[in-house]
Amino acid sequence: MEDAATPGPTRGVTENRGVQSAAGRGGALVELTPTPGGLALVSPYHTHRAGDPLDLVALAEQVQKADEFVRANATNKLTVIAEQIEHLQEQARKVLEDARRDADLHRVACNIVKKPGNIYYLYKRESGQQYFSIISPKEWGTSCPHDFLGAYKLQHDLSWTPYEDIEKQDAKISIMNKLLSQPVALPPSTEPSFQGFTH
């Protein structure tokens, strides 16, 4: 009877030793179980199996693929920078060409005082001398005495604009003048916007 009344060591007692010792220190802990609610939180297959050599191959392939993506990404960015450099070089070349042309045109013979905003017509004599005139080939008609080389507008910054680019350049200058005269109308956005200034 005593044997029946005295419970022997059971699994529940063994599992609760940690809980009882913690309770003896003045606190109680929730029982620990490897399968709470009947579900295993960690797969025994992944925690107890030996290392798979194929995992190292897969890892190496992933690292190689990452290296390829990083290289491709860097190449794309460098390509964009190279295109921007080429564009800047082209702009610099045009600036130098325009500056050389403007300097040459300012040395052309002219018997009148040149005023910004006016259009001047470039002619060439039989002697090879070039000169500016305010008379256009249309005004000369069939009696134009010399070869016509081109027409240029003298801008207020003393640069010269070829006749075919005058309308385009005047439109740009007009927009810039509106922007400068109405600074309060600029949008707060950091992105450039000329809305309202082109009409």
Automatic annotation (TrEMBL):
Annotated TM spans: none
Keywords recorded for this protein, A-Z: Coiled coil
GO function term, MF aspect, one: identical protein binding
Coiled coil segments of this chain: 71-102
Domain of life assignment: Eukaryota
Region feature Disordered, mapped onto this chain: 1-25
Name recorded for this polypeptide: Chromosome 1 open reading frame 50
Source taxonomy: Eukaryota, Metazoa, Chordata, Craniata, Vertebrata
